[in-house]
Amino acid sequence: MAVTPKSVASLMQKTIERQAALARMRLRFTKSQVEQILVNYVSNKSTGPYHELVKVLKEYPLNEDNFRIVFNDSLTCVVLLGRELTQFVDVVCNIEWLSRSEELVELYRRFVLDLVTAHTYHCPLVMMRLVTLFKGEGENWEDSPPSELLNKWSHVHDIIGHIVAIMPMTSDLLMHIVIEQFPYYKAGCYVNRAYIYNLIWMSKYIPSLRENIMMAIMNKMILMDVNIVENCKNKPQSDTMFDMEMDEQDEVSETLDYCMLEVLKWLEDEREPTMNILCNVFDRIILPTYGIRHVQFLLLYTISINQQCADRVLDNLWRVAAGLQGQGPGALTTRRTAASHLAGLLARCVRVPNTRLIKYLKSMAEWCHAYITATQESTTASDNLKAHGAFHAICHAIFYLVAFKHHLLFMNKENVNFVESLNLPRLVTCALNPLRTCTPQVTRAFASTTRSHQVVYCQAIIEKNARHTLQATAVQQYDEWFPYDPYTLPVSGKVIWPLCIDYKDWLKQGDDETQYSSMKRKLEEDDDYLVMASPTQRLASSLSTGISPGFRTSENIFI
Protein backbone atom coordinates (compact mmCIF):
# COMPACT_ATOMS: atom_id res chain seq x y z
CA MET A 1 0.00 0.00 0.00
CA ALA A 2 1.33 3.40 -0.98
CA VAL A 3 2.18 5.78 1.83
CA THR A 4 0.60 9.18 1.29
CA PRO A 5 2.04 12.46 2.60
CA LYS A 6 -1.06 12.77 4.78
CA SER A 7 -0.47 9.41 6.49
CA VAL A 8 3.20 10.27 7.06
CA ALA A 9 2.22 13.58 8.67
CA SER A 10 -0.29 11.75 10.87
CA LEU A 11 2.33 9.25 12.01
CA MET A 12 4.79 12.03 12.77
CA GLN A 13 2.17 13.90 14.81
CA LYS A 14 1.37 10.78 16.82
CA THR A 15 5.08 10.25 17.48
CA ILE A 16 5.47 13.82 18.71
CA GLU A 17 2.42 13.48 20.98
CA ARG A 18 3.73 10.19 22.38
CA GLN A 19 7.11 11.75 23.15
CA ALA A 20 5.40 14.71 24.84
CA ALA A 21 3.29 12.36 26.96
CA LEU A 22 6.40 10.45 28.04
CA ALA A 23 8.11 13.72 28.91
CA ARG A 24 5.15 14.73 31.07
CA MET A 25 5.26 11.39 32.85
CA ARG A 26 8.99 11.81 33.54
CA LEU A 27 8.55 15.41 34.78
CA ARG A 28 9.02 15.42 38.53
CA PHE A 29 9.57 18.42 40.80
CA THR A 30 10.98 17.90 44.27
CA LYS A 31 10.05 19.98 47.26
CA SER A 32 11.83 23.38 47.31
CA GLN A 33 13.34 22.74 43.86
CA VAL A 34 11.47 25.64 42.27
CA GLU A 35 12.26 27.89 45.23
CA GLN A 36 15.97 27.11 44.94
CA ILE A 37 16.01 27.85 41.21
CA LEU A 38 14.36 31.24 41.80
CA VAL A 39 16.67 32.13 44.70
CA ASN A 40 19.76 31.24 42.64
CA TYR A 41 18.50 33.30 39.72
CA VAL A 42 17.89 36.38 41.88
CA SER A 43 21.01 36.03 44.04
CA ASN A 44 23.57 34.46 41.71
CA LYS A 45 22.15 35.26 38.25
CA SER A 46 21.99 31.54 37.48
CA THR A 47 19.99 31.83 34.27
CA GLY A 48 20.23 28.28 32.86
CA PRO A 49 17.99 26.46 35.36
CA TYR A 50 15.62 29.45 35.48
CA HIS A 51 15.01 29.52 31.73
CA GLU A 52 14.68 25.74 31.68
CA LEU A 53 12.05 25.99 34.45
CA VAL A 54 10.10 28.62 32.53
CA LYS A 55 10.24 26.48 29.38
CA VAL A 56 8.99 23.38 31.21
CA LEU A 57 6.12 25.24 32.88
CA LYS A 58 5.12 26.76 29.56
CA GLU A 59 5.21 23.57 27.50
CA TYR A 60 4.09 20.78 29.82
CA PRO A 61 0.89 20.48 31.86
CA LEU A 62 1.40 19.69 35.53
CA ASN A 63 -0.05 16.83 37.47
CA GLU A 64 -1.44 17.58 40.92
CA ASP A 65 1.78 16.82 42.80
CA ASN A 66 3.88 19.06 40.56
CA PHE A 67 1.22 21.78 40.70
CA ARG A 68 1.30 21.70 44.50
CA ILE A 69 5.10 21.93 44.63
CA VAL A 70 5.31 24.78 42.09
CA PHE A 71 2.75 26.95 43.87
CA ASN A 72 3.91 26.16 47.41
CA ASP A 73 7.46 27.08 46.42
CA SER A 74 6.24 30.21 44.65
CA LEU A 75 4.26 31.22 47.74
CA THR A 76 7.31 30.72 49.94
CA CYS A 77 9.44 33.10 47.88
CA VAL A 78 6.72 35.47 46.66
CA VAL A 79 8.74 38.46 47.89
CA LEU A 80 11.43 37.58 45.33
CA LEU A 81 9.03 37.73 42.37
CA GLY A 82 9.95 41.24 41.29
CA ARG A 83 10.02 42.75 37.83
CA GLU A 84 12.99 40.63 36.74
CA LEU A 85 10.85 37.51 37.26
CA THR A 86 7.89 38.75 35.21
CA GLN A 87 8.35 35.94 32.70
CA PHE A 88 8.05 33.34 35.46
CA VAL A 89 5.04 35.11 36.98
CA ASP A 90 3.28 35.18 33.61
CA VAL A 91 3.87 31.47 32.99
CA VAL A 92 2.77 30.46 36.49
CA CYS A 93 -0.40 32.56 36.36
CA ASN A 94 -1.23 30.93 33.03
CA ILE A 95 -1.02 27.36 34.39
CA GLU A 96 -4.39 25.62 34.14
CA TRP A 97 -5.97 25.62 37.61
CA LEU A 98 -9.76 25.80 37.34
CA SER A 99 -10.24 22.05 36.82
CA ARG A 100 -8.14 21.17 39.88
CA SER A 101 -9.32 20.08 43.31
CA GLU A 102 -10.66 22.68 45.74
CA GLU A 103 -7.40 22.47 47.69
CA LEU A 104 -5.29 23.38 44.65
CA VAL A 105 -7.71 26.10 43.52
CA GLU A 106 -7.33 27.66 46.96
CA LEU A 107 -3.55 27.35 46.65
CA TYR A 108 -3.62 29.23 43.33
CA ARG A 109 -5.89 31.87 44.86
CA ARG A 110 -3.53 32.43 47.82
CA PHE A 111 -0.54 32.76 45.51
CA VAL A 112 -2.22 35.32 43.24
CA LEU A 113 -3.49 37.46 46.12
CA ASP A 114 -0.11 37.39 47.89
CA LEU A 115 1.62 38.20 44.60
CA VAL A 116 -0.42 41.32 43.77
CA THR A 117 -0.28 42.49 47.38
CA ALA A 118 3.52 42.24 47.45
CA HIS A 119 4.07 43.49 43.89
CA THR A 120 1.26 45.70 42.60
CA TYR A 121 2.97 46.12 39.23
CA HIS A 122 2.03 42.51 38.44
CA CYS A 123 -1.68 43.43 38.64
CA PRO A 124 -2.17 44.08 34.89
CA LEU A 125 -0.67 40.70 34.01
CA VAL A 126 -2.70 38.85 36.66
CA MET A 127 -5.95 40.61 35.75
CA MET A 128 -5.43 39.88 32.08
CA ARG A 129 -4.90 36.17 32.78
CA LEU A 130 -8.04 36.05 34.91
CA VAL A 131 -10.27 37.91 32.45
CA THR A 132 -9.18 35.73 29.51
CA LEU A 133 -10.61 32.73 31.38
CA PHE A 134 -14.07 34.07 30.47
CA LYS A 135 -13.28 33.53 26.78
CA GLY A 136 -12.89 29.77 26.63
CA GLU A 137 -14.57 27.49 24.12
CA GLY A 138 -17.77 25.67 24.97
CA GLU A 139 -21.33 24.82 24.01
CA ASN A 140 -24.09 27.42 24.09
CA TRP A 141 -26.62 26.92 26.87
CA GLU A 142 -30.39 27.36 27.04
CA ASP A 143 -31.52 28.89 30.35
CA SER A 144 -28.32 29.09 32.40
CA PRO A 145 -24.73 27.83 32.15
CA PRO A 146 -23.94 24.34 33.52
CA SER A 147 -23.26 24.22 37.27
CA GLU A 148 -19.70 22.97 36.70
CA LEU A 149 -18.94 25.97 34.50
CA LEU A 150 -20.55 28.36 36.98
CA ASN A 151 -18.38 26.89 39.73
CA LYS A 152 -15.22 27.53 37.70
CA TRP A 153 -16.26 31.08 36.88
CA SER A 154 -17.07 31.72 40.54
CA HIS A 155 -13.44 31.00 41.48
CA VAL A 156 -12.24 33.58 38.95
CA HIS A 157 -14.72 36.18 40.20
CA ASP A 158 -13.70 35.45 43.78
CA ILE A 159 -10.08 36.33 43.02
CA ILE A 160 -10.98 39.43 40.99
CA GLY A 161 -13.32 40.60 43.76
CA HIS A 162 -10.62 40.19 46.41
CA ILE A 163 -8.02 42.04 44.35
CA VAL A 164 -10.37 45.01 43.85
CA ALA A 165 -11.33 44.93 47.54
CA ILE A 166 -7.66 44.99 48.57
CA MET A 167 -6.71 47.66 46.01
CA PRO A 168 -9.81 49.66 44.92
CA MET A 169 -7.80 51.62 42.36
CA THR A 170 -7.39 48.44 40.31
CA SER A 171 -11.03 48.69 39.22
CA ASP A 172 -10.01 51.16 36.49
CA LEU A 173 -7.28 48.79 35.36
CA LEU A 174 -9.79 45.93 35.34
CA MET A 175 -12.20 47.91 33.17
CA HIS A 176 -9.44 48.70 30.69
CA ILE A 177 -8.54 45.00 30.45
CA VAL A 178 -12.20 43.99 30.11
CA ILE A 179 -12.60 46.27 27.08
CA GLU A 180 -9.26 45.22 25.62
CA GLN A 181 -10.05 41.50 25.93
CA PHE A 182 -13.62 41.69 24.61
CA PRO A 183 -13.99 38.90 22.02
CA TYR A 184 -14.26 39.75 18.34
CA TYR A 185 -17.94 40.04 17.47
CA LYS A 186 -17.59 37.27 14.86
CA ALA A 187 -15.82 34.93 17.29
CA GLY A 188 -19.03 32.97 17.84
CA CYS A 189 -22.13 32.92 19.99
CA TYR A 190 -20.76 31.04 23.00
CA VAL A 191 -17.60 33.06 23.54
CA ASN A 192 -19.40 36.43 23.29
CA ARG A 193 -22.35 35.32 25.39
CA ALA A 194 -20.10 33.81 28.07
CA TYR A 195 -18.01 36.99 28.22
CA ILE A 196 -21.08 39.21 28.57
CA TYR A 197 -22.55 36.85 31.16
CA ASN A 198 -19.39 37.24 33.25
CA LEU A 199 -19.23 41.01 32.81
CA ILE A 200 -22.78 41.22 34.16
CA TRP A 201 -21.70 38.98 37.05
CA MET A 202 -18.74 41.29 37.68
CA SER A 203 -21.03 44.34 37.80
CA LYS A 204 -22.87 42.84 40.77
CA TYR A 205 -19.86 42.77 43.11
CA ILE A 206 -18.14 45.87 41.67
CA PRO A 207 -21.13 48.25 41.33
CA SER A 208 -18.84 51.19 40.60
CA LEU A 209 -18.13 49.60 37.20
CA ARG A 210 -21.76 48.92 36.34
CA GLU A 211 -22.16 51.83 33.92
CA ASN A 212 -18.80 51.25 32.22
CA ILE A 213 -19.61 47.57 31.83
CA MET A 214 -23.00 48.43 30.35
CA MET A 215 -21.31 50.79 27.88
CA ALA A 216 -18.77 48.14 26.85
CA ILE A 217 -21.53 45.60 26.25
CA MET A 218 -23.68 48.06 24.30
CA ASN A 219 -20.76 49.08 22.09
CA LYS A 220 -20.10 45.46 21.16
CA MET A 221 -23.78 44.68 20.55
CA ILE A 222 -24.21 47.78 18.39
CA LEU A 223 -21.25 46.61 16.31
CA MET A 224 -23.03 43.28 15.76
CA ASP A 225 -26.30 45.04 14.95
CA VAL A 226 -24.71 47.35 12.39
CA ASN A 227 -22.95 44.38 10.78
CA ILE A 228 -26.24 42.47 10.42
CA VAL A 229 -28.04 45.40 8.81
CA GLU A 230 -25.16 46.26 6.48
CA ASN A 231 -24.83 42.66 5.31
CA CYS A 232 -28.55 42.53 4.56
CA LYS A 233 -28.28 45.69 2.46
CA ASN A 234 -25.16 44.59 0.58
CA LYS A 235 -25.90 41.02 -0.44
CA PRO A 236 -23.24 39.48 -2.72
CA GLN A 237 -24.22 38.46 -6.22
CA SER A 238 -22.38 35.12 -6.30
CA ASP A 239 -24.45 32.20 -4.99
CA THR A 240 -21.42 30.62 -3.34
CA MET A 241 -20.39 33.86 -1.70
CA PHE A 242 -24.01 34.44 -0.73
CA ASP A 243 -24.15 31.11 1.11
CA MET A 244 -20.88 31.86 2.91
CA GLU A 245 -22.00 35.36 3.85
CA MET A 246 -25.39 34.07 5.03
CA ASP A 247 -23.74 31.48 7.28
CA GLU A 248 -21.49 34.13 8.78
CA GLN A 249 -24.38 36.54 9.16
CA ASP A 250 -26.56 33.88 10.79
CA GLU A 251 -23.84 33.36 13.37
CA VAL A 252 -23.66 37.08 14.14
CA SER A 253 -27.47 37.21 14.38
CA GLU A 254 -27.48 34.27 16.79
CA THR A 255 -24.72 35.89 18.83
CA LEU A 256 -26.62 39.17 19.12
CA ASP A 257 -29.82 37.27 19.93
CA TYR A 258 -28.34 35.52 22.96
CA CYS A 259 -26.40 38.60 24.09
CA MET A 260 -29.68 40.54 24.03
CA LEU A 261 -31.22 37.78 26.13
CA GLU A 262 -28.48 38.08 28.77
CA VAL A 263 -28.91 41.86 29.02
CA LEU A 264 -32.70 41.48 29.25
CA LYS A 265 -32.22 39.06 32.16
CA TRP A 266 -29.86 41.58 33.76
CA LEU A 267 -32.47 44.32 33.51
CA GLU A 268 -35.13 42.01 34.90
CA ASP A 269 -32.97 40.87 37.83
CA GLU A 270 -31.69 44.24 38.99
CA ARG A 271 -34.48 46.52 37.79
CA GLU A 272 -34.15 50.16 38.84
CA PRO A 273 -30.38 50.73 39.22
CA THR A 274 -29.51 48.94 35.99
CA MET A 275 -32.42 50.48 34.09
CA ASN A 276 -31.35 53.97 35.10
CA ILE A 277 -27.86 53.19 33.86
CA LEU A 278 -29.28 51.89 30.57
CA CYS A 279 -31.07 55.22 30.12
CA ASN A 280 -27.72 57.02 30.54
CA VAL A 281 -26.01 54.65 28.13
CA PHE A 282 -28.83 55.05 25.61
CA ASP A 283 -28.29 58.82 25.53
CA ARG A 284 -24.53 58.46 25.09
CA ILE A 285 -24.20 55.47 22.74
CA ILE A 286 -27.46 54.18 21.25
CA LEU A 287 -29.21 57.47 20.45
CA PRO A 288 -26.37 58.84 18.27
CA THR A 289 -26.23 55.54 16.31
CA TYR A 290 -28.34 55.55 13.17
CA GLY A 291 -29.78 52.53 11.40
CA ILE A 292 -29.57 49.75 14.00
CA ARG A 293 -32.47 47.30 14.25
CA HIS A 294 -32.30 45.48 17.58
CA VAL A 295 -30.28 46.96 20.46
CA GLN A 296 -32.71 49.87 21.00
CA PHE A 297 -35.41 47.39 22.02
CA LEU A 298 -33.66 47.20 25.39
CA LEU A 299 -34.99 50.71 25.92
CA LEU A 300 -38.50 49.67 24.90
CA TYR A 301 -38.27 46.82 27.42
CA THR A 302 -37.07 49.24 30.11
CA ILE A 303 -39.85 51.78 29.66
CA SER A 304 -42.36 48.92 29.57
CA ILE A 305 -41.58 47.75 33.09
CA ASN A 306 -40.46 50.99 34.76
CA GLN A 307 -42.73 54.01 34.49
CA GLN A 308 -40.18 56.41 35.98
CA CYS A 309 -37.71 55.42 33.27
CA ALA A 310 -40.48 55.81 30.69
CA ASP A 311 -41.15 59.39 31.78
CA ARG A 312 -37.46 60.18 31.80
CA VAL A 313 -36.72 58.60 28.41
CA LEU A 314 -39.67 60.08 26.54
CA ASP A 315 -39.13 63.52 28.02
CA ASN A 316 -35.43 63.43 27.19
CA LEU A 317 -36.10 62.29 23.62
CA TRP A 318 -38.51 65.15 23.17
CA ARG A 319 -36.07 67.68 24.59
CA VAL A 320 -33.32 66.45 22.25
CA ALA A 321 -35.61 66.41 19.20
CA ALA A 322 -36.91 69.90 19.94
CA GLY A 323 -33.43 71.28 20.61
CA LEU A 324 -34.32 72.22 24.17
CA GLN A 325 -30.90 71.17 25.48
CA GLY A 326 -27.44 71.92 24.20
CA GLN A 327 -26.15 69.70 21.41
CA GLY A 328 -22.64 69.38 20.07
CA PRO A 329 -21.45 68.49 16.56
CA GLY A 330 -23.89 66.34 14.65
CA ALA A 331 -26.80 67.89 16.52
CA LEU A 332 -29.19 67.74 13.55
CA THR A 333 -28.65 64.02 13.03
CA THR A 334 -29.14 63.36 16.74
CA ARG A 335 -32.33 65.44 16.80
CA ARG A 336 -33.76 63.54 13.85
CA THR A 337 -32.82 60.22 15.44
CA ALA A 338 -34.44 61.31 18.71
CA ALA A 339 -37.66 62.16 16.84
CA SER A 340 -37.62 58.70 15.23
CA HIS A 341 -37.13 56.99 18.59
CA LEU A 342 -39.85 59.06 20.23
CA ALA A 343 -42.38 58.30 17.50
CA GLY A 344 -41.43 54.62 17.46
CA LEU A 345 -41.80 54.17 21.21
CA LEU A 346 -45.12 56.01 21.34
CA ALA A 347 -46.42 53.95 18.42
CA ARG A 348 -45.09 50.48 19.20
CA CYS A 349 -44.80 50.15 22.99
CA VAL A 350 -47.81 48.36 24.49
CA ARG A 351 -47.37 49.92 27.93
CA VAL A 352 -47.10 53.55 26.90
CA PRO A 353 -50.48 54.96 28.03
CA ASN A 354 -52.62 56.96 25.66
CA THR A 355 -52.18 60.04 27.83
CA ARG A 356 -48.50 60.12 26.88
CA LEU A 357 -49.34 59.84 23.19
CA ILE A 358 -51.73 62.79 23.51
CA LYS A 359 -49.19 64.79 25.51
CA TYR A 360 -46.35 64.42 23.02
CA LEU A 361 -48.52 64.85 19.93
CA LYS A 362 -49.70 68.13 21.40
CA SER A 363 -46.14 69.21 22.29
CA MET A 364 -44.85 68.32 18.83
CA ALA A 365 -47.68 70.13 17.05
CA GLU A 366 -47.26 73.26 19.19
CA TRP A 367 -43.51 73.27 18.55
CA CYS A 368 -44.05 72.89 14.78
CA HIS A 369 -46.60 75.71 14.67
CA ALA A 370 -44.25 77.97 16.62
CA TYR A 371 -41.47 77.07 14.18
CA ILE A 372 -43.66 77.88 11.18
CA THR A 373 -44.59 81.23 12.68
CA ALA A 374 -40.94 82.04 13.37
CA THR A 375 -39.90 81.23 9.79
CA GLN A 376 -42.83 82.67 7.84
CA GLU A 377 -40.81 85.70 6.81
CA SER A 378 -37.96 83.61 5.43
CA THR A 379 -37.75 83.63 1.63
CA THR A 380 -35.65 80.45 1.52
CA ALA A 381 -37.83 78.39 3.84
CA SER A 382 -39.02 75.92 1.20
CA ASP A 383 -35.63 75.50 -0.48
CA ASN A 384 -33.20 75.07 2.37
CA LEU A 385 -34.36 71.62 3.51
CA LYS A 386 -31.29 70.80 5.57
CA ALA A 387 -31.61 73.96 7.64
CA HIS A 388 -35.09 72.85 8.69
CA GLY A 389 -34.23 69.18 9.19
CA ALA A 390 -35.42 69.05 12.80
CA PHE A 391 -38.79 70.59 11.84
CA HIS A 392 -39.24 68.02 9.08
CA ALA A 393 -38.31 65.16 11.43
CA ILE A 394 -40.86 66.23 14.05
CA CYS A 395 -43.57 66.69 11.41
CA HIS A 396 -42.80 63.21 10.11
CA ALA A 397 -43.15 61.88 13.67
CA ILE A 398 -46.61 63.48 13.89
CA PHE A 399 -47.68 62.07 10.51
CA TYR A 400 -46.40 58.62 11.49
CA LEU A 401 -48.19 58.61 14.84
CA VAL A 402 -51.48 59.80 13.36
CA ALA A 403 -51.32 57.02 10.76
CA PHE A 404 -50.13 54.32 13.15
CA LYS A 405 -52.45 55.16 16.08
CA HIS A 406 -55.50 56.00 13.95
CA HIS A 407 -57.64 53.41 15.75
CA LEU A 408 -57.14 55.35 19.00
CA LEU A 409 -57.09 58.90 17.67
CA PHE A 410 -60.34 58.52 15.72
CA MET A 411 -62.22 56.15 18.02
CA ASN A 412 -64.61 58.81 19.38
CA LYS A 413 -65.63 62.42 18.92
CA GLU A 414 -63.45 63.68 21.76
CA ASN A 415 -60.32 62.21 20.21
CA VAL A 416 -61.25 63.50 16.76
CA ASN A 417 -61.61 66.96 18.28
CA PHE A 418 -58.11 66.58 19.72
CA VAL A 419 -56.68 65.66 16.30
CA GLU A 420 -58.43 68.66 14.77
CA SER A 421 -56.92 70.88 17.48
CA LEU A 422 -53.46 69.92 16.21
CA ASN A 423 -54.21 71.99 13.09
CA LEU A 424 -52.61 69.43 10.80
CA PRO A 425 -53.65 71.28 7.60
CA ARG A 426 -51.28 74.12 8.51
CA LEU A 427 -48.38 71.68 8.86
CA VAL A 428 -49.17 70.05 5.53
CA THR A 429 -49.64 73.24 3.54
CA CYS A 430 -46.93 75.43 5.07
CA ALA A 431 -44.08 76.74 2.91
CA LEU A 432 -41.62 74.35 4.57
CA ASN A 433 -43.58 71.48 2.96
CA PRO A 434 -42.72 68.56 5.33
CA LEU A 435 -44.57 66.05 3.11
CA ARG A 436 -41.93 66.65 0.46
CA THR A 437 -39.28 64.86 2.53
CA CYS A 438 -41.58 62.36 4.22
CA THR A 439 -41.21 58.73 3.17
CA PRO A 440 -43.85 57.65 0.62
CA GLN A 441 -45.10 54.92 2.96
CA VAL A 442 -45.85 57.32 5.80
CA THR A 443 -47.24 59.91 3.40
CA ARG A 444 -49.70 57.42 1.89
CA ALA A 445 -50.83 56.07 5.26
CA PHE A 446 -51.22 59.55 6.76
CA ALA A 447 -53.07 60.88 3.71
CA SER A 448 -55.44 57.89 3.59
CA THR A 449 -56.22 58.06 7.30
CA THR A 450 -56.80 61.81 7.50
CA ARG A 451 -58.80 61.89 4.26
CA SER A 452 -61.11 59.11 5.44
CA HIS A 453 -61.82 61.06 8.63
CA GLN A 454 -62.01 64.40 6.79
CA VAL A 455 -59.25 65.99 8.84
CA VAL A 456 -56.66 66.84 6.17
CA TYR A 457 -56.64 66.60 2.38
CA CYS A 458 -53.09 65.98 1.22
CA GLN A 459 -53.57 64.87 -2.37
CA ALA A 460 -52.88 68.24 -3.99
CA ILE A 461 -49.64 68.65 -2.03
CA ILE A 462 -48.61 65.05 -2.80
CA GLU A 463 -49.16 65.55 -6.54
CA LYS A 464 -47.26 68.85 -6.48
CA ASN A 465 -44.34 67.16 -4.70
CA ALA A 466 -44.42 64.29 -7.20
CA ARG A 467 -44.11 66.75 -10.10
CA HIS A 468 -41.25 68.49 -8.34
CA THR A 469 -39.49 65.14 -7.83
CA LEU A 470 -39.83 64.26 -11.52
CA GLN A 471 -38.31 67.59 -12.52
CA ALA A 472 -35.46 67.40 -10.02
CA THR A 473 -32.04 66.28 -11.27
CA ALA A 474 -31.06 64.61 -7.99
CA VAL A 475 -32.85 61.51 -6.71
CA GLN A 476 -34.88 62.21 -3.58
CA GLN A 477 -33.43 60.34 -0.59
CA TYR A 478 -35.91 59.44 2.14
CA ASP A 479 -35.19 58.44 5.71
CA GLU A 480 -36.69 54.96 5.84
CA TRP A 481 -35.28 53.94 9.21
CA PHE A 482 -37.94 53.18 11.79
CA PRO A 483 -36.10 52.00 14.92
CA TYR A 484 -38.98 49.96 16.34
CA ASP A 485 -40.15 48.07 13.28
CA PRO A 486 -40.87 44.46 14.36
CA TYR A 487 -38.08 42.72 16.23
CA THR A 488 -36.68 39.74 14.30
CA LEU A 489 -34.37 37.82 16.68
CA PRO A 490 -36.25 34.67 17.70
CA VAL A 491 -34.90 33.83 21.18
CA SER A 492 -34.82 37.26 22.83
CA GLY A 493 -37.91 38.09 20.78
CA LYS A 494 -39.98 35.94 23.12
CA VAL A 495 -39.32 38.60 25.77
CA ILE A 496 -39.68 41.59 23.43
CA TRP A 497 -42.69 40.64 21.29
CA PRO A 498 -45.37 40.82 24.04
CA LEU A 499 -44.36 44.44 24.66
CA CYS A 500 -44.78 45.63 21.06
CA ILE A 501 -47.86 46.64 19.09
CA ASP A 502 -48.35 45.47 15.53
CA TYR A 503 -49.58 47.97 12.97
CA LYS A 504 -53.25 47.57 12.05
CA ASP A 505 -54.40 48.91 8.69
CA TRP A 506 -57.34 51.26 9.22
CA LEU A 507 -59.19 49.51 6.39
CA LYS A 508 -59.05 46.17 8.21
CA GLN A 509 -61.28 45.13 11.05
CA GLY A 510 -60.19 43.28 14.16
CA ASP A 511 -58.65 43.79 17.56
CA ASP A 512 -55.15 45.12 18.02
CA GLU A 513 -52.46 42.49 18.26
CA THR A 514 -49.19 42.56 20.08
CA GLN A 515 -46.22 41.31 18.14
CA TYR A 516 -46.30 38.26 20.41
CA SER A 517 -49.84 37.16 19.54
CA SER A 518 -49.33 37.93 15.86
CA MET A 519 -45.94 36.23 15.80
CA LYS A 520 -47.30 33.19 17.63
CA ARG A 521 -50.12 32.83 15.12
CA LYS A 522 -47.71 33.25 12.23
CA LEU A 523 -45.31 30.70 13.70
CA GLU A 524 -48.12 28.17 13.99
CA GLU A 525 -49.26 28.81 10.41
CA ASP A 526 -45.80 28.74 8.84
CA ASP A 527 -43.96 26.26 11.03
CA ASP A 528 -42.46 24.41 8.08
CA TYR A 529 -41.03 27.61 6.63
CA LEU A 530 -39.51 28.68 9.92
CA VAL A 531 -37.67 25.41 10.25
CA MET A 532 -36.01 26.14 6.91
CA ALA A 533 -35.50 29.90 7.23
CA SER A 534 -32.57 31.34 9.11
CA PRO A 535 -32.76 34.49 11.29
CA THR A 536 -30.82 36.29 8.57
CA GLN A 537 -33.36 35.37 5.89
CA ARG A 538 -36.14 36.66 8.11
CA LEU A 539 -34.25 39.90 8.75
CA ALA A 540 -33.51 40.28 5.06
CA SER A 541 -37.22 39.96 4.38
CA SER A 542 -37.98 42.65 6.92
CA LEU A 543 -35.55 44.99 5.19
CA SER A 544 -37.00 44.39 1.74
CA THR A 545 -38.57 47.26 -0.14
CA GLY A 546 -41.76 45.28 -0.66
CA ILE A 547 -43.03 46.11 2.83
CA SER A 548 -43.59 49.65 4.03
CA PRO A 549 -40.98 50.63 6.63
CA GLY A 550 -42.57 51.91 9.81
CA PHE A 551 -45.72 49.89 9.20
CA ARG A 552 -44.23 46.42 9.06
CA THR A 553 -46.01 43.80 11.11
CA SER A 554 -44.87 40.55 12.64
CA GLU A 555 -46.56 38.77 9.76
CA ASN A 556 -44.75 40.47 6.92
CA ILE A 557 -41.28 40.10 8.40
CA PHE A 558 -41.64 36.45 7.44
CA ILE A 559 -42.73 37.12 3.88
UniProtKB/TrEMBL annotation:
<dbReference type="GO" id="GO:0001042">
    <property type="term" value="F:RNA polymerase I core binding"/>
</dbReference>
<protein>
    <recommendedName>
        <fullName>RNA polymerase I-specific transcription initiation factor RRN3</fullName>
    </recommendedName>
</protein>
<dbReference type="InterPro" id="IPR007991">
    <property type="entry name" value="RNA_pol_I_trans_ini_fac_RRN3"/>
</dbReference>
<dbReference type="GO" id="GO:0006361">
    <property type="term" value="P:transcription initiation at RNA polymerase I promoter"/>
</dbReference>
<dbReference type="Pfam" id="PF05327">
    <property type="entry name" value="RRN3"/>
</dbReference>
<comment type="similarity">
    <text>Belongs to the RRN3 family.</text>
</comment>
<dbReference type="GO" id="GO:0005634">
    <property type="term" value="C:nucleus"/>
</dbReference>
<dbReference type="GO" id="GO:0001181">
    <property type="term" value="F:RNA polymerase I general transcription initiation factor activity"/>
</dbReference>
